Structures are given as structure tokens and as C-alpha cells.
């Protein structure tokens, strides 16, 4: 019996998060586990002030988290990267919500044994507004969390 049956990995489409996806894909493949690649996004129907605030804070990265179409493209590309890294079974999901809440929701729905996140937190004002995904996920997850060193 494998140590892990279902692995969830989060991505925002950044190079850093794709390194975590590749590691999760290789691990899932080695364990014979299913891999679920998830991306959180903010719906475009949200309050315009909140949307404007998120765009101001995220600047060029706003496309990665605002609207379902970019999120679906992000998980599709990440799913392909996971397969190339060795994953056997890959499912993708784009989820409305903040990154940590969305990932934890996917972990619960998929009854995952492992959550994989990159170590790149959000620095400065971005981190204060959106929180640190690796720190919050590690603290709040009910399953094992692998923090992949994706920076430097």
C-alpha cells in the first residue's frame, strides 16, 4: 500500500508554483497516487472595489487569480507539466476563493493524503493582504504538507 493515494498541489501559474507541480507530479507518479492540480481564483463578478484592490496589489500577476478562464488555462498547463514530470493520473480544478481556503477545500473534497505547496510566500503588501500560502496551509491542513523549495 502506498504512503499517499491522493496528492493535491496548488498553482498560480508562476514559475515557482510550476516547480512545486513538477515535484508533486514526480512524487505522485512514484507513489502511484492520483494528483489533483488546483488553482484558486477570484470571480470577476465580485465587488468592483475588491477586484480593483486585488489588481492594484498584484499588478502583472492579477491575470493569474482573477476570473475562471485564466485559472482553467493555468491548471491545464500545470496538469501537462505534472504528466511530463511522471504523474500517472492527473485531474485539474479551478476553485473560487482565496488560495489557502481553496486548497484546503480541494484537500477535503478529494480526501487527499498530501498537500504540496511551493515555499514562495507573498512578500510585502501582497503578503499582508493575501497571506502566506505555505505558512497558512501548513498550519491549517488536516493532512501532510510538503513545502517544496522553489526559490533561489
Task: Give a description of the structure.
It is built from 6 helices and 5 strands. The protein has a 5-stranded parallel β-sheet with strand order 3-2-1-4-5, with helices on both faces. Strand 1 (6-10), helix 1 and strand 2 form a beta-alpha-beta unit. It has 152 residues and is an alpha/beta fold. 47% of the residues lie in helices and 20% in strands. The longest helix is centred in the N-terminal third of the chain and has 17 residues, at 15-31. It starts with 5 loop residues before the first strand and ends with a strand.
Concise structural overview:
This protein is of the alpha/beta class and 152 residues long.
Task: Kindly list the characteristics that best describe this protein.
152 residues, alpha/beta, 5-stranded parallel sheet, 6 helices, globular
Q: What is the beta-strand fraction?
A: 15-25%
Shape: globular
What low-confidence regions span 5 or more consecutive residues with pLDDT below 50? 62-66, 122-130
Radius of gyration: 15 Å
- What is the makeup of the main sheet? 5 strands, parallel
What order do the strands of the largest sheet run in, or round the barrel if closed? 3-2-1-4-5
Task: Output the helix-strand order.
Answer: EHEHHEHEHHE
Total strands:
5
Helix and strand composition category: alpha/beta
Oligomer: single chain
Task: Please estimate the helix content.
Answer: 40-55%
Average pLDDT works out at: 82
Q: What's the tally of helices? A: 6
Distance between the termini: 35 Å
